[in-house]
Amino acid sequence: MKLGMIGLPNVGKSTLFNAITKSSAEVANYPFCTIEPNIRSITVPDKRLDFLEKFYNSKKKTPSTIEFLDIAGLVKGASCGEGLGNQFLATIKETNAVLHVVRCFEDKDIMHFMGKVNPLRDIETVNLELIFADLEYISKKIEKLKKNKRSNLEKTSTEKEFVLKIKNHLDSGNPVRTLKLNNEEKTMLKELSLITSKPVLYVCNVAENDLSTMGNEYTKIVKEFAKKETVQAVQICAKFEVEISKLLKIDQDSFLKDFTMQGIGSNFLIRKSYDLLGVETFFTAGEKEVRAWTIRKGLSAPKAASLVHSDFERGFIRAEIMNFDDLLRLGSEKAVKESGLLRSEGKEYLVRDGDIIEFRFNV
Fold first, then answer.
1. Of 75, 131, 228, 304, which one is least surrounded by beta carbons within 10 A?
2. Share of the chain above pLDDT 90, in %
3. Please, how many CA atoms are within 13 Å of residue 334, restricted to the half-sphere of its CB?
4. Residue 357 burial (CB count, 10 A)
């Protein structure tokens, strides 16, 4: 799973990337400090896995991972190759979802690429370039379909109708993710891999003095824009997150207490990214190892088993399942079983977040 961090230059992408991934990507007060994308896999914080490690006295703990990409800042004209546009667009196509970082702070020491802070203008600048890039791709697709001499005319006609629908929506200045589609159209859309069809989370990068409030005038603008797109917007202070990421766990807790905060913002953002990707977690647990497995929501038990080992899917018999919440509440496997909450599920079962599974198979 890959998450691309995008936005204009000097909005705090690399700073936030460093906080989330605990790395040291270059940060500087000038455009295009980031040229080649910074890429880092990080472990997903999950207190459930920590609990299971202690509960089973496991020798090994293996968390889930997500890959973050800090992508070069985009500028007006990127779709025509301005700045690092071509490289930016090629990289973002490789991602599964997008974190759109928006500058929502004033700082006279950090230049704004477009003169002054204006989150609505900044968002629209980035979004329009992505729309233009998708329009170019769709226009070429339409020309290709017109020249297509395949015998399956009905299928070709359906494709033409669909891509024209996409083009009209983009021509109106709207990202593809805001277009209402039926199930058949959603399947066709996946094959196109359009940039503006990717799920997005708007990330308001605020100053430290805005952390204890509900935001500022800039975050309100971003959240209102996100609401119109029916997506989410969150706020975080990238500078603060870098500072706290350098502290030991015990110091972090003390530091957060002084700020009357509940937890690390970058951890919250990672969990939000998980939701954005449409994935969830199931666990395998025992004395040898506890492990968190990332799957797309709605995956069947045999498909989930294939992640553990291909033989598990091929020889799948059943899955013995209890949910983490039941184990936590009742305190033991025995209590879960006696309460009738340890279940035996077959091939049709769709795995749920927090399931602890033991797969039965025969090959």
1. 228
2. 49
3. 0
4. 21
